Every structure is written in C-alpha cells, then in structure tokens.
Amino acid sequence: MVWVNAIVQGLMLGGLFALFACGLSLLFGVVGVINLAHGDFAVLGAYVAVALLPSVHTNALWALLFVPPIFAVFGYGAQRTVLQRSLDTGPLTTLLVTFGLSVVIQNALLEGFSADSHSLSVGALATSAFHPAHGVVVPYLRLAILLTAVAVLGSVQLLLARTSVGRQIRAVADDPEAASVSGVSTRHITGIAAGIAFATVAVAGLAFGMYAQFAPTTGSTWLLYAFEAVIVGGLGSLWGTLAGGCVLGLAQTIGEQIAPTAGTLAVQLVFLAMLAVRPTGLFPARVAV
Amino acid sequence: MTDAALLQLNAVSKRFGQVVVADGLSFSVDAGATLGIVGPNGAGKTSLFGMISGDLPVDSGDIEFDGRSVVGIGTAERCRLGITRTFQVPRPFDGLTVFENVLVAAQQGGGLRRAAAVDAALAALAETGLADRANMMAGQLGLLARKRLEVARGLSTQPRLLLLDEVAGGLTDPEVAELVAIVRRINGAGIAVVWIEHVVRALLSTVDRLICLALGKLIADGNPREVLGRPEVKELFLGTESAIAGDRPERVSEPVSEPAIDPAGGNP
C-alpha cells in the first residue's frame, strides 16, 4: 500500500509541476520567449498575494480572484514593451533580458520582504485529508492543486483549439508575417498570449505558496522542474506538459519511497533517461500550440 | 494617374544598403483591373509587394490606397482596408486546418463574424478547389494545394486588391491552367489583381496590362504583348530566354548590369 500511496502522492505533486510549467510552455511555444524569470514571476505572484491580502490570516484562496488578472494585464504589458523588443532584437536577447528580470525580481523581493520565508494561509484546507484506502492519504489541498492544473491546462488548450483568439494565437505562432497579411494584429495577439501565460504563472505561484514556504530566491529552483516537465511532456503540447509534470512527480515520490533522500535524484535520472531515449518528449506537438 | 485609381504609387524608393529594390517607382492600378509584373530576379518585384502590403517600410515616396496614404499603416490594418498578398513560397499556417487558415483570414482580414465568416471561408475554399480538404492540416498539403491555399486565404480577407507572388511557379501546365481560371474568376468578381509571374503564358492569358521592373525601376508599362515586344524588355527578359535557346550564348551567365537595363540608354 505504500507504493499505491507513493503513486497517488506523485500524481498530485505532478499536478503542481504541470500547473507551474504551463506558463513556461505557453510563453515558449506561442510567443517564442524562453522565460528564465518564470520561477521568479511565480514567486512574485505569491508575494503580491502576501502584500495585498489584508492580514496573514486571511484565506489566501481569495488571492486567486485578483492576482491572476493583475498578472494577465502585467503580462500583456511586458510583452508589448520589454519582451517584444527583445524578440525583435534576436532570440538570445530574450534569454538575457529574462535572466536580468530574474535578478531584478529576486533582489526587489529581498529588499521589500527580506530573506525570511513566507507562506500563504489556506486555513483548514492546508491540513485536512481523506483516506480512500488504508495507508493512502489524500490531502485536500494537493488534490485541489491537481484538479486546478487539469482545469487550467484544459481550458487553455480549449481556448487555443476552439476560439477565434486561440486560432489567431496559433496562426501568429506559426507565421507572424503571414498572419498579419491575413489581417491579424500580431502584436496585440502575442500580448494576449503572454497575458494568458502570466495569469497561469500567477495561479501556479499561489498554489506553490499554499503548498510550501517560499523566499525571494525560491523561483530559480522551481524553474528547473518547470523546464523538465515541459521537455519530458514534449515541447508545444499542453497535455504533454501535464503528463510530463506527472512523470516527474511520480519519479519524486517513488524515489523517496526507495530512499528518503533519493526523490530529487530520481527526478533528474528520469529526465536524463527521457532525453536519451525520447528527446522529443512523450507527446511532441504535431502542431505548434 | 487618375483620381479613381485604387492603388497609386508615387516615387516610391527603397534600398537595402547598396541594393536598390525600388527607385522612384510610380504607377497606379484601377479598381477591378489586372496588372502583371515581370522582371529578372532581384528586380524588386517581391519587395514591391512587401511595401504595398505593409511588411516592408518605404524609404521615401507615397503609397495611396483608395485615395488615402497607407504609408505608416500596419500590415494588418492595410489588410482590413482591402490589400492582401500571397507569398512566393507558400506560407500556410501548418498547425491549423485548411479551413482554420481561411477562417482566420475571413474573421480578421475580412472583418466578418460567425456565420458570415464561415460562409466566406467555405466560399474561398470552393473557389480554389480545396473544399474537400478543409479538415486536413495545412502542413500536409502538397505544393499545388499550398499555392491554392495562399490564394484562398487572400481571397477570404475580402480584398479589393490581391497581390499574387508567383503562384504559378513550379506547377505543371494543367495546374497552371487551373490557377489561371481561378485568378480570372477572382478578377471577374471585381477584385483588382496584381500578379508577379515568371510563367509569362499564365500572365498573358490573364492580365490586361503588364509592367516590367529591373533594379527597382519601371522600364515598361502597357499592353502585355506590346510590352514584351519592346527591345529593352526583350533584352532583359526574353533575351536571356533566347540565350538559353542558344541564340546569344554570351548572355547566359552574364549578370544583369545597370546599363543593360537603363530605360533611357541603349546597350553597353
């Protein structure tokens, strides 16, 4: 039963990884920006909640109502200004610019919130769990995060596949010049795509903040997992990202079951094995999403 | 020329470093007209389309569409005004279905909503013979179908001016004939067509007027057969063909040089 429990925990952890990787996958697949500040933006989202919630005891679930919209607007603005300009200069410039943003965000957070770690309070949800079988524990918060990941990835996928905005986003991702001679306002559409990506980053940051403690420099560690989830799942496929997150989550918890300190090592071994055996990922996109 | 012209270029110039792609170009296209453009490689034909559609900013001069200057207006906005182009090497959105390709154009370029956009998209596919492949991914299409999709996507934007860039290149004779029939039908619906083409046969059976460009300059403008008959055009365009046929072998590998195409001067 410990193995069943490890698998259940792994899937739920995978939901968190996938939720976190969604924004990275979108911003890279659609906008073409490899966002090295991705993790820091997520941490920034959690800190925005800390700053704007009236007290440390307020249930942080309220932050889900206002932090993602703030981030969507912020993402649109960032795309139309900093990111688009760096894209126009060259693909490597976006790496430098987002790396620079990462440094700026970390230090600004250190300045504003000190190096102490914070957490987001979700009241009883943080500690309650149910036991579907003997020896299997399902904490409500982790289950909620997994369901949120499925909902977020699924709705973004639906938006891309079924809506007019989604078609325009895919067209621009495919060929911006051809899109503009078809009447698509490419920069506006790219901005919207970035806004969506940033909104998911905010959701992920809040989820992480409810799940674990965070400090200004936590983001860089998370970034690695996000990259791995995207690559294991297959670049450009959002369902692949969900699968990639779950694979990494399973590796982590099953690794921990084998030896308590082997979780992270197992994740990296699975990642390396994936690169060696199937470098295109589990579900390489037939189409650029 | 006249105030009624749909498209009017006034002294348009553009250069990339030392390479001149437009050198004081002025000409006009009337509403519903057909115009063919010929010229050797590097004459600035495709760049001209870029400047008219908005991809490429002009260095100087003015481009008017429907009586207003469009210089400084973005590509997407020009498309909504009624200007669209196709690409020489087809650039469909490979990750979208054929139908989605034209639907995006109908909704954004044509400004159509819901059922109207769907109808326009289906009409464009029917017009270009792609209706049976509407649900295929565009990336799976062959060359002829990709070229047709370029035309269908352009058509879906409900243009008043359609710029076709070598849509007949690389196709077999029967395929060219089909494309010519499509272009003639499009023009018959009142859409002005400007067509860059090396397949002269296709042009002659479609356009009423032909211009010849070389190194960014307009060197002939008029009735297609009359233009092709002019010595300076033959020199440039047919001269190389007859050279290939063995007529004037010394011209085969000779690059087109400035004096050879100077409209005022003769041969070097």
Mean pLDDT across the residues of chain A is 92
| Shape field of chain B | globular
Shape of chain A: globular
Main β-sheet, spatial strand arrangement of chain B: 6-7-8-3-9-10
CATH architecture of chain A: Orthogonal Bundle
Average predicted confidence as pLDDT of chain B: 86
Helix content percent band of chain A? over 70%
What is the end-to-end distance of chain B? 33 Å
CATH topology of the largest domain in chain B: Rossmann fold
Helix and strand sequence of chain B: EEEHEEHEHHHEHEHEEHHH
- Looking at the structure, the CATH topology of chain A is ABC transporter involved in vitamin B12 uptake, BtuC
Major sheet of chain B: size, sense and barrel closure? Answer: 6 strands, mixed
Structural class of chain A: mainly alpha
CATH superfamily placement of the largest domain in chain B: P-loop containing nucleotide triphosphate hydrolases
Give the low-pLDDT segments of chain A.
Answer: none
> In order across it, which strands form the biggest sheet of chain A?
1-2
- Architecture of the largest domain in chain B, according to CATH? 3-Layer(aba) Sandwich
Q: Class by helix and strand content of chain B? A: alpha/beta
Description:
- The complex is a heterodimer of chains A (289) and B (268).
- Chain A is mainly α.
- Helices cover 74% and strands 3% of the residues of chain A.
- Chain A contains eleven helices and two strands, in the order ααααββααααααα.
- Chain A has a two-stranded antiparallel sheet.
- The radius of gyration of chain A is 19 Å and the shape is globular.
- The N and C termini of chain A lie far apart (39 Å).
- The mean pLDDT of chain A is 92.
- Chain B has 268 residues and is of the alpha/beta class.
- Helices cover 37% and strands 23% of the residues of chain B.
- Chain B contains ten helices and ten strands.
- In chain B, the strands form two sheets. A six-stranded mixed beta sheet of chain B has the order 6-7-8-3-9-10, with helices on both faces.
- In chain B, a hairpin with a 2-residue loop joins strand 4 and strand 5.
- Chain B starts with a strand and ends in a 7-residue tail after the last helix.
- At the A-B interface, helix 6 and helix 7 of A face helix 2, helix 3 and helix 5 of B.
